[in-house]
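Annotators were shown the component list below and the corresponding predicted structure, then asked to write short factual statements about the assembly.
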Amino acid sequence: MPGKLKVVGFGPGGKGDMTLRAIEAIENAEIVMGFTTYIKILQEIFPDKQFKSTGMTKEVDRCKMAVQEAATGKEVVMVSSGDSGIYGMAAITYQVADELDADIDIEVIPGITAASSAAAVLGAPLTHDTALISLSNRLTPWDLIEKRLDAAAASDMVVALYNPKSHGRPDLIEKAFKIMGKYKDPNTVVGVVRNIGRKDQDSWICSMKDFDFEKIDMFCTVIIGNSKTYALDGKMITPRGYEIGGE
Amino acid sequence: MPGKLKVVGFGPGGKGDMTLRAIEAIENAEIVMGFTTYIKILQEIFPDKQFKSTGMTKEVDRCKMAVQEAATGKEVVMVSSGDSGIYGMAAITYQVADELDADIDIEVIPGITAASSAAAVLGAPLTHDTALISLSNRLTPWDLIEKRLDAAAASDMVVALYNPKSHGRPDLIEKAFKIMGKYKDPNTVVGVVRNIGRKDQDSWICSMKDFDFEKIDMFCTVIIGNSKTYALDGKMITPRGYEIGGE
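Structure shown to annotators:
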């Protein structure tokens, strides 16, 4: 019987935002693997479970280990925070299993992606068309990222930024705001959530022109509104277009 | 004490893809409200629960009822399929509560959005930048939707189409493909999932040029790949850019 490899998104980090399928997959797995930071989060939720962690930039090696373990017939879980299918480990898992010609069943178990969990904290900023764009240029040429930021802003989409900052590229978010600022009004509402779902979760709303780039780090998700987005009692609202008042 | 209104996304439809927070919110609610189709799904999962349903185009009325019930001090849940914050009821709930000047606490509980759950069924099509675009022109001018489709395709984003078809607008998806076809190769991989998470779930992968518009209805989610997306043993893979082979 082929082994089973489940690629599980565990959402923002609390057990409450995990799906039943994700919880069951982790509880039933013989091995749970993932990036060190994620494993630390899961060890608090599943203290009796055995985990294997690897460093951040070892994605391919981690995948190979997971695929090889599964190929021996074990039930293996590979975890990603958020949704395993959105900037997560789902694609690379299929690719590595193909490269190794491994006889395993792969199942992707989706989770709540950072844009969704950040939006819920901020109010309702994603109720209209939204572009999910990562500012990480580790694997994507920056000119392609620029092109997408430009296109999303020019067509008045809400933009949810993943990986807004890292040590190696602290200025990319400022560059991204400059590109979007060609089309988006300086008063466009922006929302930030830091450490979503963790104990020290923090969030704030401001305008594009008052945005403080220094406050952003790799643990933030940043959502830039469209031209209709507004602030309401500290919440960020992107209306869908319903007539609210009167009959 | 102000009443509590929780806007809950229950994901694609099965209990397994619901989060613990969503399940607990529904179990603890005094009233659960939602569009008839969603309530029927939830009645199967929570047979002992009392529900109130309203028709599809009565969103504002449904929200007013929910806000008014919560304002009496009751714990009320308003449900959306997928994520309540992505084309869901979150924004309109805040807007209606503001309009009615209701003294209630609103909490948005995110769920697995259709793009995430469809992606998990199809393989891993959303591992790179993605635009979420609804083809419903009930509340959004069609020229704005066209502009967003054009921008997303021109910048080589993956595109996840929500509401790809309805009785009133059967030809919009064909128009959308024509616009994206200005930039996307005819061989671009497309994936479709119909009735995600339900008993009669169906899914298929094809190329843009072989896409059968007749097979699409309002219960489908359609994902159009970027220029790197490929088909692998019946799965749809959008690579992130990792070097898979060798060292």
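Statements collected:
1. The mean pLDDT of chain A is 94.
2. The two ends of chain A are 62 Å apart (CA to CA).
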